Structure formats: structure tokens, C-alpha cells
UniProtKB/TrEMBL annotation:
Its EC number is 2.1.1.297. GO terms for biological process: methylation. It comes from the Bacteria. This is Release factor glutamine methyltransferase. Substrate binds at residues 180-183. One of its GO terms (molecular function) is nucleic acid binding. Residues 2-68 form the Release factor glutamine methyltransferase N-terminal domain. Residues 91-188 form the Methyltransferase small domain. InterPro entries: DNA_methylase_N6_adenine_CS (IPR002052), HemK-like (IPR004556), N5-glutamine_MTase (IPR050320), PrmC_N (IPR040758), RF_methyltr_PrmC (IPR019874), SAM-dependent_MTases_sf (IPR029063), Small_mtfrase_dom (IPR007848).
Length: 276
């Protein structure tokens, strides 16, 4: 079964065998290791039909994570839905850098465009005392993020709908503001290939060559950052210089870019120093 499916999927998925294993294990409600342990197991007619239904969705290009409604991020299980981006390993870089640089236990942090809640909930899982807020424009994303908070037993994280800062309390200050905003230019070829075709465009595409939301967040963040507060962005691999320019023009200090696991510029951060 796996071998047959693999040949069919191979035409478009570079992880065809793994895709088949994940779908089969999902139908059997087991880990993929079960397939190795019981290779001779015969599927019931019902299991076979269930597998074929999911397999056909995958053949249409639907991402595995939308079919199984789950994706691991920061070694935590997250529910995903077509209302949100599928969390990417590269985004773990934001979590990693924030945790390495901010060691105090009493900090506050805002995640803008939280989607599944991946960044906000991962940070909260490591720093239980932090006051973490996660906002998203999409109500559907917020209800999914709340489900994830419940599943991960992180009820202290505040998740609410907001158009960037529109519903963030005006007097609230954060030590850390982080965002993986939409940053892809609408003409980017990447949008018509692979998994991204199924993801919400509102989470991917930004005006102004992909810089519009980064600009808006960087500007408005100055009202909500504490003195010495830090701002972190994920961005496109060719956008680092552009993001640094935006931050420099707004007067941010200590601007730095980090590379992702593929060696591409992916995260830029900076510090906000209030002028007396
Ligand atoms: N990194 C994602 C991609 O290239 C985009 C994520 C985003 O726009 N925030 O598909």
C-alpha cells in the first residue's frame, strides 16, 4: 500500500513515502513506528476506504498538516486549520533567540499574528511566569489558538482578536514584541507552488513588496514597547536589508539579523530606547 501510494504521490511531493506513512498511521490512530512493527497487518475495508479518501486529498495537493489537523512546533503538538499558516521549523528560530536573550522570569510578551498560537504558546511553555499575549486578525485563528492553549495547559496566555494593535489596551507595555507577519509579495511565484496554495493569503501576502505589515508593526510597536524593549520579526530571506532600514529610520538600536537553519537571513531584531 505504501509503495503504491508513494509512486502516485511522487509526482508532486518530495516526501511521498513519509506522507503515505503519516496518512496510514493517522487512519489507524497510531504512531508511524507502528507500521514498521506490524508490516503484515491487513487493513479493514473501513480503514482502507478512510486511507483512500485522505490519500486523494493529498493527491490534490492539500498539505498533510491540514489533513491530519496537527503539526508539531517546538516539540509541542498544535492543532492547525486552513484558517492559519502551518507552523514552520524556521519560525522556531524566533522562539529560540527570544528565550536565549530574555532570561528574567517576569517579562511580558506580545505575539502579533499568532495564528495557531505557535510562538506565544511555545514561549509560555518555557517561561511559565511570563505574561504572554497573542493576537490575530482572524477570529477563526484565535479560537484555534485558544484550543491549543487548552490542550497545552497554558491558560495564562491571553489570546484575542485584534487588527495588529487595534485591540491591545492603550496603556499596556511589553518587554518583547514578536511577529511572523505576512511578508510575501503578491507576485511571488512561490505562492502558486506546493503547500502555500492552501494557506490563507491574508497570512502570507503583504503590500509594498511584502514590507507593508512589517512597517506598520515597527512604527506602532514604539507605543507598546517598554524602554529597552525588544522587537523581533521573521521575514523573507531577501528582506533583511529592507527590514533593517525600516528599523533604523524609526530610531531602533542594536539591529541584528539571524540566519535560519538553511543559512538564509530570516529573523531581525532590535531594541527600542526611549529618548528622554
Ligand atoms: N515562510 C513562509 C513561506 O515562505 C511565509 C510565512 C509568512 O509569510 N509569514 O511560505
Amino acid at each position: 500500500m505504501i509503495n503504491q501510494g508513494q509512486q502516485l504521490l511522487a509526482a508532486f511531493s518530495d516526501s511521498a513515502k513519509l506522507d503515505c506513512k503519516i496518512l496510514l498511521a493517522f487512519v489507524l490512530n497510531k504512531e508511524t513506528s507502528y507500521l514498521l512493527t506490524w508490516p503484515e497487518k491487513k487493513l479493514t475495508e473501513q480503514e482502507y476506504q478512510a486511507f483512500i479518501t485522505l490519500f486523494e486529498r493529498r493527491l490534490q495537493g492539500e498539505p498533510i498538516a491540514y489533513i491530519t489537523q496537527e503539526r508539531e512546533f517546538w516539540s509541542l503538538p498544535f492543532y492547525v486549520s486552513p484558517a492559519t499558516l502551518i507552523p514552520r521549523p524556521d519560525t522556531e528560530l524566533l522562539v529560540e533567540h527570544i528565550l536565549a536573550r530574555h532570561l528574567a522570569s517576569d517579562l511580558s510578551c506580545l505575539d502579533l499574528g499568532t495564528g495557531t498560537g505557535a510562538i506565544a504558546l511555545s514561549l509560555a511553555s518555557e517561561q511559565k511566569q511570563w505574561q504572554v499575549h497573542g493576537i490575530d486578525f482572524s477570529e477563526a485563528a484565535i479560537s484555534l489558538a485558544k484550543k491549543n492553549a487548552q490542550r497545552l495547559q497554558l491558560p495564562q496566555v491571553e489570546l484575542y482578536q485584534s487588527d495588529w494593535f487595534s485591540n491591545v489596551a492603550a496603556n499596556k507595555k511589553f518587554n518583547i514584541i514578536v511577529s511572523n507577519p505576512p511578508y510575501i509579495d503578491e507576485a511571488d511565484q512561490h505562492l502558486i507552488e506546493g503547500d502555500v496554495r492552501f494557506e490563507p493569503l491574508s497570512a502570507l501576502v503583504a503590500q509594498d513588496n511584502g514590507f507593508a505589515d512589517i512597517k506598520r508593526i515597527a512604527k506602532d510597536a514604539q507605543v507598546y514597547l517598554t524602554n529597552n524593549g525588544a522587537l523581533y520579526f521573521e521575514h523573507g530571506f531577501e528582506q533583511a536589508a529592507g527590514v533593517r532600514d525600516i528599523l533604523k529610520q524609526l530610531g531602533y538600536q542594536s539591529i541584528e539579523t539571524f540566519k535560519d537553519y538553511g543559512g538564509n537571513d530570516r529573523v531581525t531584531c532590535c531594541i527600542y530606547l526611549q529618548l528622554k
